[in-house]
């Protein structure tokens, strides 16, 4: 059974074209290449000169993650319109929430941003949890202002709260 409508196909085509433009490589943390395929398919087996330390690793900004997440959400919502029983967004939201509220310096900030971007509803309990995370990040920064992980966590909670605030009851 073919679920795709012309509108969905158009969204997918435009998104693919958009993500293929060099100016969007930066969003995925691969701006220093001429083609995304160069990085995506590079391996030490095929390219003996490549090693994990042979290129400068670019940081993936939370604002870039926000933009990528919103673009992926648009693609997912377009596909979901054609698949009535689709639970992709619910599963993605559940996973994002799980990692957003679980301490992990690498994943938690990213999960908070994703959770904020993709959530369609939010409870007061979830907002309280995010505020607690923000509070812990602020406490950590007061102890040592050079704590990069705390600064990233604070930025992530602010992004998440900004996205989630409109979903709250007045």
UniProtKB/TrEMBL annotation:
This protein's name: NF1 protein
Organism: Atlantisia rogersi
Originating gene: Nf1_0
